[in-house]
Amino acid sequence: MRRTIFDLDVLRTFSTGMELGNFAKAAERLGRSTSAVSAQLKKLEEQAGTPIFRKAGRGLALTDAGETMLGYARRLLELNDEAAAAVNSVELEGWVRLGLQEDFGETLLPDVLGRFARAHPKVRIEARVVRNAELLERVTSGKLDLALAWSDGTLTAHCERIGEVPMRWIGPSEGQPAWHAASGEPMPLASLEAPCLLRSAATKALDEAGISWRLAFVSPSLGGLWAATAAGLGLTIRTPIGLPAKVRPLAPKTIGLPDLPKLGLVLHRAEAEPQPAAVRLAELVLQSVQGALREVLA
Question: How many domains does the chain have?
Fold first, then answer.
């Protein structure tokens, strides 16, 4: 059996093009001509020994093999970049302070910390999981080097918009919610303590739809909110990122709830030119977040 060794340079072009949704943009980002990119994609199909793309209208879409290849391409590139960072930055030392929302505490943080620690064992990380307002205050005052926060429209001096995440009505994973708009009863809302961006989005959407509501449960922590929602005390609003098994997103129309807007996600930096440790940690945070976004937007 012929052993296939995939070209990482080709895989990077493939992954970048799929991330940007356009291989012409990928060519521009990677500093290549469109013909060179086309040649790389042809080479990828030859190495794979099966079609990666299929025609879809005027454009191209991935075949089943292409979808499989994309997942492996991203994993190979992440491992390659981690190895390069490990051998080229073995003397990276110091410490870096990272802040992020509770939504990412169990899903993103372990992966990021594990990968960073393997590559840079001499660097200490201080991670703080707090609410949005405190994240922005801390990164602005220099108490955090990096902060991953939901966007309320506030911009710090050095921030990067990562993308938008759909907000969803959330209910218990078992059975149907006890409330329905047709009942005429106020919707029981479970929420985090104010100020809360998602709580504000929920009440605004309900008010605009003419649906009465009541605060059925208020929690200072996300864990308490999940427990109340799973117990059926009320419905809440979050994004699909980091949902525990005991709750699930609801189809809003089935119980008479309004659709919800998307929520921006921003990475804030304390300095325009962070220390090398902060730069590397930011890269890993962005990779993990983009992977989570791909999953929820798929």
Answer: 3
Tell which residue, 189, 210, 211, has the closest CA to residue 200. 189
Q: Is residue 2 part of a domain?
A: no
pLDDT of 62 strictly over 70: yes
CATH code of the domain containing 46? 1.10.10.10
What is d(CA 6, CA 62) in angstroms, rounded to the nearest whole number?
A: 18
Token pair in block for residue 287: 């990779």
pLDDT band, very low/low/confident/very high, at 18 (cuts 50, 70, 90): confident
